[in-house]
What does this fold into?
Amino acid sequence: MTSRELICDFGILRELRRRENMSIADLSVRSGVAASVISKLERNQNTAEMETLYRIARVFGLTLSDLISLAENRTSHRVTAERYRSGDFEFDRVNYGNMRCMHAAAKKGAKLSTPELHRDDYELCWVLRGHLRVSLPNESCDLTRGMSVQFDALLPHTYETLEDTELIIVHLHKGKRF
It folds into this structure.
């Protein structure tokens, strides 16, 4: 094996193709990679050059690293929630490489301004029960059961409960911008 080859489970290519209703021949034409190479990759019967993987990844709108990550991470990843308190809110949080999910509960009148844990993320807040006000620099959103809002997590923001509230907050890491 040369330094330009990878050993991964590229059976994921079959799943990607089927999701896009694409045959091996279609993928071959669109990527410029021989159908026999794609077939062997899908069955893990050979390794691939980086250029080959790059060309295939582009057909699916993926980066080379995204495709390799899919091929390397074919199993689930379990974590255990950690409990913590921030302001008047009680949280259970799970952390993954590209996201953090927090389940929170707070009594009426609880307030939390610019919560910690922020990096260059998108933040989604989804109210499971109760009534919550989310204040951002140029707007305020009142959310009740079933409603959600998404915004740039780096913006100053405040959560204020207008009645006992249960919510989920998700921080989704932004992809590389350049």
Remarks:
- The CA atoms of residues 107 and 164 lie 4 Å apart.
- Confidence is low (pLDDT under 50) at residues 1-6.
